[in-house]
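To whoever is on call:

I kicked off a structure prediction for a single chain this morning and the downstream step that reads the tokens threw a length-mismatch warning. I double-checked the sequence; it's 149 residues and nothing unusual in it as far as I can see. Pasting both halves so you can look.
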Amino acid sequence: MTVRKAQKSDLSSLYALEKELFLPQNYPLSRGSFSYHVKNNLLYIAEVDGKIAGYILVLIKRKNAKLYSLGVSEAYRNRKISQELLRFIFKELISLGFSKLLLEVRTDNEAAIALYKKMGFCELKKLKAFYGDGCDAHLMELRYASDTL
């Protein structure tokens, strides 16, 4: 597996993966959104045998970094791709001077919550009816220093 910065040539594959992974109430990204994020934020893909297996998108706004989306295709699950993408982005954020990463995750997404806790994220608070279907979200944070990775 290799991790690399997403490029415009990846847009169709990223959009197809997004439609596979996220229902409308989970705010899937549009093709246009991916195009914007390739230019303006941290969007990296994991490739296995030349195919996009997953991606991670971190939004950068002033001094804040927010994990907006992390997804791995069903065909590539249980290969620790999410963990590798997270480790990669942690190192990238440290190199850019960030010391924390925030995210929101559905309270009913037990697999994602377990992954984030395993990677060191802590729950800050619950956000009521955060998603379009009324599901709550956990606001989670990871604080790190360059010597923790």
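Update from on-call: the warning came from a stale cache, not from the record. Cleared it. Sanity check on the structure: Helices lie at 11-21, 31-40, 81-95, 110-118.
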